[in-house]
UniProtKB/TrEMBL annotation:
Record-linked PROSITE patterns: FRD_SDH_FAD_BINDING (PS00504)
Top-level taxonomic group: Bacteria
Domain FAD-dependent oxidoreductase 2 FAD-binding stretches: 6-395
Keywords in alphabetical order: Electron transport, FAD, Flavoprotein, Membrane, Oxidoreductase, Transport
Name listed for the protein in its UniProt record: Succinate dehydrogenase flavoprotein subunit
Matching Gene3D superfamilies: FAD/NAD(P)-binding domain, Fumarate reductase/succinate dehydrogenase flavoprotein-like, C-terminal domain, succinate dehydrogenase protein domain, Succinate dehydrogenase/fumarate reductase flavoprotein, catalytic domain
Hydrolase among keywords: no
EC category: oxidoreductase
Enzyme Commission number: 1.3.5.1
GO molecular function: electron transfer activity; flavin adenine dinucleotide binding; steroid dehydrogenase activity, acting on the CH-CH group of donors; succinate dehydrogenase (quinone) activity
Cofactor(s), by name: FAD
Length: 575
């Protein structure tokens, strides 16, 4: 067993920003940062478009109150407004801090940080580094951490969160390179493990986004919040599913259907292509449903629409959004300077997650928290995104609440005692679990079962949902869960066994999938990204509240708790 004052699981933006804040406030604190990839290969590097902040460099009429209102309205009024106020108020300070750390933001001619329009935002407030903003920020955070007392456990996979008597005490980790198991004990544990896009078959997320932290939390008997709210990004590159950033539309690209029509005029006439993501995704899905999608040969009735950049010109495309041009060219053979890009909605972001307080403390239920356990970033739900996240607010949440949670941990360490922990039972149970996977003699390969799980979620819990579809999905998922015992590993090595890793990730995907479906079935309304064709209206009377889902062997138990309303009363959401 190894001891660290703080164990951070996840090497992306939220985890690194929290670690940096702890190092600043308590510079001699022993910190372990555990990640299943190298930190700068975390999915945060894929964030392209930007980070929102009311710097007023382009629009001097902007304000934090306007940013907060846009965020709450974008959330379909499910966001906790005290959390949103902190997000909007802290945004300018954290962006300037990132600049001082060395982040190379794109500039205006006078040298100030440039800002571009983004979907759902009423002002031009999104700061950016071309279309590689997450990459620029994460690299600088990691470089700044190297001078502090941080031990990096790169390419270690965390198998279990250890919680005893409502106190987080440690984690069990598996070294991918050597197969060694280790128990890490800590006064404070922070989960910053990212999202779960790989539970669906088409996603912008990388292969590591398998909901590990969420599943471990659920298995520990703790709730997950608002998991039914899955964001579909409107412009996933067809057929690969990777992201064509919202920055492209922010720079002026059009969405057109088979008739060459800018169809967003029918769905969000005041915002057009810069409507919030849930509205734009449903608009694209509806166009495809109605036969106005496009086939690869250019005829009508196909599975995608076009994102048209041609009018923007080569210079703008290559200077403002070069990575998006590169992705379309590399993965679809499209030269976006002279050809439109085929796009359709792709799973992108999890609005829900591990429920936390404003200090990042994890909730055991609506009233109490777990001692020594914290979460931040996409795996957490504070909740600033509610039922739908606005673009460029995700990087902002990682930095604002990563910093805030890091500060809370630095403060709390003074009164958090070293937990009593016997590591042997946990190490032994982990060893037995791995040996059991090796010993299984089934005839099912992991990739086949994973594909069936992903197809199940896509078919039964997609952009449009009904009770009949989701009940069918839950039944199918139970069958797939039972088939997990039939998987067979062809590789029995303990060294760099990626097949073993995929088996462990698949078990986590199954947990997350069941919780998403259960929460979506219970929420009998349409709100934000959760659209029920059998309940097409928002129902504030019965469902202006957060879902708390508890994972149990016999199914998922659903509870609710109130939304914090401090600034804005709910109103009709039109654009």
């Amino acid at each position: 067993m190894q001891d660290f004052a703080v164990v951070i699981v996840g090497g992306g933006l939220a985890g690194c920003r929290a670690a940096l804040e702890i190092c600043r406030l308590a510079p001699h604190t022993p910190i372990a940062l555990v990640a299943k990839t190298h930190p700068i290969r975390s999915h945060s590097v894929a964030a392209q478009g930007g980070i929102a902040a009311t710097l007023k460099n382009v629009d001097d009429q902007d304000s934090w109150e306007s940013h907060a209102f846009d965020t709450v309205k974008g959330s379909d009024f499910l966001a906790d407004q005290d959390a949103v106020a902190i997000l909007a108020q802290d945004a300018p300070d954290v962006v300037i801090d990132l600049e001082h750390l060395g982040v190379l933001f794109s500039r205006l001619p006078d040298g100030r940080i440039a800002q571009r329009p983004f979907g759902g935002h009423s002002h031009q407030r999104t700061c950016y580094a071309a279309d590689k903003t997450g990459h620029a920020i994460l690299h600088e955070l990691y470089c700044n951490l190297l001078k502090y007392n941080v031990t990096f456990f790169s390419e270690w996979y965390v198998l279990q969160l250890i919680v005893e008597d409502q106190q987080a005490k440690g984690v069990v980790a598996y070294h991918i390179e050597t197969g060694r198991l280790e128990v890490l004990r800590a006064k404070a544990i922070l989960f910053a493990t990212g999202g779960y896009g790989r539970v669906f078959n088409t996603t912008s997320n990388d292969f590591a986004s398998t909901g590990d932290g969420l599943a471990m939390t659920a298995r520990a008997g703790l709730p997950l919040e608002d998991m039914e709210f899955v964001q579909f990004h409107p412009t996933g590159l067809y057929p690969a599913g990777v992201l064509i950033s919202e920055a492209v539309r922010g720079e002026g690209a059009y969405l057109i259907n088979a008739a060459g029509e800018r169809f967003m005029a029918h769905y969000a006439p005041s915002r057009m292509e810069l409507a919030p993501r849930d509205i734009t995704s449903r608009a694209i899905a509806t166009e495809i449903r109605l036969g106005r999608g496009i086939h690869p040969d250019g005829t009508a009735g196909g599975p995608f629409v076009y994102l048209d950049l041609r009018h923007m010109g080569r210079d703008t495309i290559m200077s403002r959004i070069p990575f998006c041009w590169e992705e379309a060219h590399r993965l679809a053979g499209v030269d976006a300077v002279v050809e439109p890009i085929p796009v359709r909605p792709t799973v992108h972001y999890s609005m829900g997650g591990i429920p936390v307080t404003l200090r990042g403390q994890v909730r055991a239920n609506a009233a109490t928290t777990v001692t020594g356990f914290y979460a931040a970033g996409e795996c957490a739900c504070v909740s600033v995104h509610g039922a739908n996240r606005l673009g460029s607010n995700s990087l902002l949440e990682c930095v604002v609440y990563g910093r805030r949670t890091g500060a809370a941990i630095a403060t709390d360490l003074a009164h958090l005692a070293w937990p009593d922990l016997n590591p042997q039972p946990y190490r032994q149970a982990a060893e037995q679990h791995l040996e059991q996977l090796f010993a299984q003699q089934g005839d099912l390969r992991i990739a086949h079962l994973r594909q069936q799980v992903q197809d199940c979620m896509t078919n039964y819990c997609g952009v449009f949902r009904t009770a009949e579809l989701m009940q069918q999905g839950l039944q199918e998922l139970q069958t797939l869960k039972s088939r997990y015992q039939q998987i067979r590993l062809g590789d029995h090595s303990r060294y760099w066994n990626t097949e073993l890793l995929e088996a462990l990730e698949l078990a986590n995907l199954l947990v997350v999938a069941e919780i998403i479906l259960a929460g979506a079935l219970a929420r009998q309304e349409s709100r934000g990204a959760h659209f029920r064709e059998d309940y097409p209206q928002r129902d504030d009377t019965n469902f202006l509240r957060h879902t708390l889902a508890f994972y149990r062997p016999d199914g998922v138990a659903i509870d609710y708790f109130p939304v914090t309303m401090t600034l804005f009363a709910p109103q009709e959401r039109t654009y």
